[in-house]
UniProtKB/TrEMBL annotation:
<feature type="transmembrane region" description="Helical">
    <location>
        <begin position="123"/>
        <end position="145"/>
    </location>
</feature>
<keyword id="KW-0472">Membrane</keyword>
<dbReference type="InterPro" id="IPR000515">
    <property type="entry name" value="MetI-like"/>
</dbReference>
<feature type="transmembrane region" description="Helical">
    <location>
        <begin position="166"/>
        <end position="184"/>
    </location>
</feature>
<keyword id="KW-0812">Transmembrane</keyword>
<feature type="transmembrane region" description="Helical">
    <location>
        <begin position="221"/>
        <end position="240"/>
    </location>
</feature>
<dbReference type="Pfam" id="PF19300">
    <property type="entry name" value="BPD_transp_1_N"/>
</dbReference>
<feature type="transmembrane region" description="Helical">
    <location>
        <begin position="325"/>
        <end position="348"/>
    </location>
</feature>
<feature type="transmembrane region" description="Helical">
    <location>
        <begin position="279"/>
        <end position="305"/>
    </location>
</feature>
<feature type="domain" description="ABC transmembrane type-1">
    <location>
        <begin position="117"/>
        <end position="348"/>
    </location>
</feature>
<comment type="similarity">
    <text>Belongs to the binding-protein-dependent transport system permease family.</text>
</comment>
<protein>
    <submittedName>
        <fullName>ABC transporter permease</fullName>
    </submittedName>
</protein>
<keyword id="KW-1003">Cell membrane</keyword>
<dbReference type="Pfam" id="PF00528">
    <property type="entry name" value="BPD_transp_1"/>
</dbReference>
<dbReference type="InterPro" id="IPR035906">
    <property type="entry name" value="MetI-like_sf"/>
</dbReference>
<feature type="transmembrane region" description="Helical">
    <location>
        <begin position="20"/>
        <end position="48"/>
    </location>
</feature>
<dbReference type="GO" id="GO:0005886">
    <property type="term" value="C:plasma membrane"/>
</dbReference>
Length: 356
């Protein structure tokens, strides 16, 4: 009896040790994968930026600069050193989160990104809320009534959302809803009359105006954000509804759905309570990836609506040949995608025991 207890204790201890080893190995693989991804992203962007026919000295000093001033700035930027040396110095600084100064603004790149990124987060967050709130019910209804008129309409909306450029939708939206009907405010985040009355806080104007009790300014901010967020959410809505439809169609063909119907459960309850629960984690993954794409893909929308966010900053940096800003922005985008992928993987492990 004693030997049996000892054997069981040893078996349990071995299982715990194996579990710890598997967890440590998983963390190690994930860490190496993240480091390799970010290193590759920085390396590729750096060398492409250096090989492009753009002159950062001209971007700073202008075309009518003397040769002496040009040579001085050239050496100051370290461009007289071999390319591999420039890369090594940049990588060393990047590890300490020093991406240099933006050539266009003269401020540190991280400071510029911290200034413009809240505007993009606010826009993308409102857009993903709209896209999720409409896209998920559309996808579920499309699967419930497969091959019906509802299904065809949802699929047509998804096709339009995939194929229509955001900049065209933005221009049409401004023409119709702002210039013609006057239902929304125009470009920018807030009217000039309120711009200096809002005290800087979180950087999110919806939150700042609400916390400060400036409800008139809050309504003005909502009036500015509703159109660009709706335009930006159209592509996410199409993707979320399409993927939700696919997940639900697969679930609705399972035996437990037929069993629930035979027992007398209503069709709506079977779909929303049982079938949708089984695809919820997959839908969360789709929403999370959509959010990452919205953060990264808001460039054209921000340009059309003169939205002072991350996408517009990156566009201006590209046009000016400001590679410090471009590489810093690219690395931030990579970090966002890696972080969201890790988050979705964690959600899978929490909510779906089969993946543990």
């Amino acid at each position: 009896m004693t030997s049996l207890v000892v054997a069981r204790a040893r078996l349990a201890r071995t299982k715990r040790q194996n579990g710890v080893l598997r967890f440590a190995a998983s963390v190690g693989r994930t860490t190496v994968s993240i480091a390799a991804t970010l290193l590759g992203l920085v390396t590729l962007t750096f060398f492409i930026g250096r090989l492009l026919p753009l002159d950062p000295v001209i971007a700073i000093l202008g075309d009518n600069v003397s040769q002496e001033a040009y040579d001085t700035m050239y050496r100051k930027l370290g461009l007289d050193q071999p390319l591999i040396v420039q890369y090594g110095l940049y990588l060393k600084n990047a590890l300490s989160f020093d991406f240099g100064d933006a050539l266009t603004s003269g401020r540190p790149v991280l400071e510029d990104i911290a200034r413009v990124f809240p505007a993009t987060i606010e826009l993308a967050t409102v857009a993903v809320v709209i896209g999720t709130g409409i896209g998920i019910p559309m996808g579920v209804l499309s699967a419930m009534y497969r091959d019906s008129l509802i299904d065809h309409v949802v699929r047509m909306i998804g096709l339009i959302g995939y194929s229509t450029p955001n900049f065209w939708l933005g221009l049409m939206g401004l023409t119709v809803f702002y210039a013609s009907l006057g239902w929304v405010s125009g470009p920018g985040r807030v009217d000039f009359a309120y711009e200096f009355t809002i005290e800087p806080g979180t950087g999110f104007l919806l939150i700042d105006t609400a916390l400060q009790g400036q409800w008139e300014a809050f309504r003005n901010v909502v009036s500015h954000i509703v159109l660009p967020a709706s335009i930006l959410s159209f592509g996410a809505l199409a993707y979320i509804s399409r993927m939700t439809r696919s997940f639900m169609i697969e679930q609705l063909g399972q035996e437990y759905v037929i069993t629930a119907r035979v027992k007398g459960m209503s069709w709506a309850r079977t779909v929303w309570v049982h079938a949708f629960r089984n695809v919820a984690v997959q839908v969360v993954t789709v929403v999370a990836l959509s959010y990452a794409f919205l953060l990264e893909g808001a460039v054209l929308t921000e340009t059309v609506f003169a939205w002072p966010g991350f996408g517009r900053y990156l566009t201006n940096a590209l046009l000016a040949g400001d590679m410090n800003a471009v590489v810093g922005c690219t690395l931030l985008i990579g970090i966002i995608f890696v972080a969201i992928n890790l988050l979705t993987d964690l959600l899978y492990r929490i909510f779906d025991p089969r993946t543990r």
